[in-house]
Amino acid sequence: MVVVRFAPSPTGPLHIGGVRTALYNYLFARQQNGRFILRIEDTDRARFVPGAEEYILESLEWLGINFTEGVGTGGENGPYRQSERAEIGLYKQFVDQLISSGKAYYAFDTPEELDAMREELKDEHSDVQQYNHATRQGMKNSFTLSPEEVNRRIQSGEPYVVRMDMPADEEVSFQDVVRDTVTFNTNQLDDKVLIKSDGIPTYHLANVVDDHLMAVTHVIRGEEWLSSTPLHVLLYRAFGWEDTMPVFVHLPLLLNPNGKGKLSKRNGDKMGFPVFPVDWNDAETNVVFPGFREAGYDPAALINFLALLGWNPGNDEEVMDINRLIELFSLDRIGSAGAKFDLEKLNWFNEIYLRKRSPEELLPQTKIALTQAGITLPDDPFLIGMIGLMRERVKFVREFATEAPYFFHSPIAYDEKMAKKWTAESAVLLAALAEKFEPLAEWNAEILHHTFQELLTAREVGAGKVMTPLRLALTGTSSGPGVFEIAALLGKEETQKRIKTALETIPV
Ligand code: GLU
Q1: Is 260 exposed, middle or buried (0-12, 13-18, 19+ CB in 10 A)?
Q2: Is-cis flag, bond preceding 481, omega within 30?
Q3: Which atom of ligand 1 is nearest to the CA of 219?
Q4: Whole-number Å distance between alpha carbons of 12 and 55
Q5: Is residue 38 classed as helix, strand or coil in its secondary structure?
Q6: pLDDT per position as a tens digit, 182-195
Q7: pLDDT tens column, 440-499
Q8: How far does residue 140's CA lie from ligand 1's centre (Å)?
Q9: 464 CA to middle of ligand 1, Å?
């Protein structure tokens, strides 16, 4: 059975690239009828940010990216927070195993001693400034201290770390679905810390142990983890787990809209778009990092857009809802080239999805957007009518407030160009129409249209002669949805009032 996991670290708001990683895992799991785990990798307490875990859960829930087990959901492989796993001593036996088999060792160097080593190497113009097979000989560790001395130091409570014994000059190769065979030389790698001086494992150790214990079959994650993978492969080997090692899938980078450089918050700010799923209030600086949700994006549009950032269905299909994506998704069509974040495309998807939603579905978002725009909310049936008329004319829900203010108040001004074309005849015809409207007992678009037709026949005039002045009177503009639909929604009283005001104020 396919088992995948999303394993974010709660170090701040989840970047949109992380959302794409979660989405690809989700699509793959759903397609394969597999399991999808949410694991929180919070062993780096120095970088822990309160609220980040809740933010991750809220973002993924908004997008409908659901887990079969994990933090928030529970399951039989828990706990799913690595800090809790460390607390119950889950990693200890694995570290002991590595030490007793000679794959890992103790090191007692103080931060000052480590700095001094790096400085010295810098002075020697060495390009490797790291703790490795060469430099470890000059440091305080299991290689340079006697077993008795190592024991004595541990017994006396001296702080220590456990490091990986990275072999010298060995080629480590592994298969990656996106990049085929990837090879690193161990000389590029250092003796990574596996257990920190506070006794807590680092990302690398906890990640490998947990993927093994949770029987993860596919590790689908961002390209930035590619360089850590040889270490992970060596850990699988050291534990004797190579046979069940997961398949690696490293996703391409997300690039700026211009294709230059990694997509970053700074670029997003500069170009005026979010790079986070939902708003994040940074407690330290009190700055709000804008999110796609609050910027008015439809979650289904964002999902469709993200799915295509690094993957394609192999044909020219573009608009795919979640079920279609689940059906078509495949790991072998993930590309290795960086994917440009094309904002225009996202906005296009947003427009498409907005039209697919029913007015009822759009109602809650619309209320929020209108309230934010300072508009006093009309009742729900009115709003639903308005959404039905305007849905095809906007890209964002917030545009209901700006594109059609006449639904919320009578025109403040009349379009100048149109007002100039207003003649004595316009006034006469519009007054006649208002008169024909007055006795109507029923008020809907069909009846209004019929009444209007009667007027045209009686007066022998073209439709534009009456329609344009009516539209100007009701909306102040020259374009928009059907004018009889607008009048029907506004109601008789409001329609007649607006006609009267226009007749009184537009000069002939
Ligand atoms: N905790 C890592 C992160 O924050 C997970 C990387 C992985 O999926 O292995 O992205």
Answers
A1: exposed
A2: no
A3: 8
A4: 9
A5: strand
A6: 999 999 999 999 99
A7: 999 999 999 999 999 999 999 999 999 999 999 999 999 999 999 999 999 999 999 999
A8: 31
A9: 63
